[in-house]
Fold this protein.
Amino acid sequence: MDADLDLAARRIVAARYVVAMTGAGLSVESGIPPFRGPGGLWTKYGEPPMNGYERFLADPKKAWEDRLNPQGPMRELWEALARAEPNPGHRALVQLEDAGVLRATITQNVDNLHRLAGSRSLLEIHGNATLIRCVTCVARYERDAIDYAILPPRCPRCDGLLKSDTVSFGEPIPPDVLEACSMAADRADCMIVAGTSATVYPAAGFPIAIADRGGDLIEVNPYPSDLTPLCRMTLMGPAGEVLPALAARVLALR
Ligand code: APR
């Protein structure tokens, strides 16, 4: 690991434009279960239906009742999110951002932990569970700023339908965040890929495009993923331990 950390740090320092992409594995050490693999919610409960958004549009009142009174995997997920705090992995990415090394963090996580850790150039491609979004004008509101007395709640700005900002299966990624993610990934010649199985698109397409262009992928994951064969190197360990060690090496080299 020592030699690998050194090599990875040198690749990051030598890169022109570094971005990070994170997934559920980054928040495992904050007490939030991943979706797939050992201890995964979908491993335990089975993959959810892929038409979540269609079902929301078909009966938004019921979808909101379920959202406000979650059962099964969603109950387990929201309860874990409510207790979670950022871990050293989240904070290491903030350190790299503060040092000007990391230009943007694309996260698939809806757990708000990157924000709580202090990430600023943060792109939440699957949304944020503490926010509510209008499906018409894409305005976003703090969850607690909305009145849920009448369901489904309506957008204060355009009277459109409000839903959780989290992107449901089958829902298109909101255009503003998708464009920002694509721009960041298009500029990158190096991506730190931490805690993702890289199986869900369009997010999984970003590191593949960077590798196709000859860029470096530095993976942090205790287990091999679909991306591992494309990576310059994989640092096999928990993100909460590996990312702080990697950040320390990078900052020592600058
Ligand atoms: N540190 C780093 N990585 C870890 C750790 C850890 N402590 N523990 C597990 N992992 C790795 C696993 O090996 C796995 O490769 O994190 C990855 C988690 O993969 P998934 O559970 O598939 O999560 P993710 O890639 O974020 O899923 C993508 O799928 O269900 C949807 O919308 C959901 O955003 C999510 C998307």
Q: What stands out?
A: The mean pLDDT is 96. The first helix runs from residue 2 to 14. Residues 122 and 215 are 21 Å apart (CA to CA).
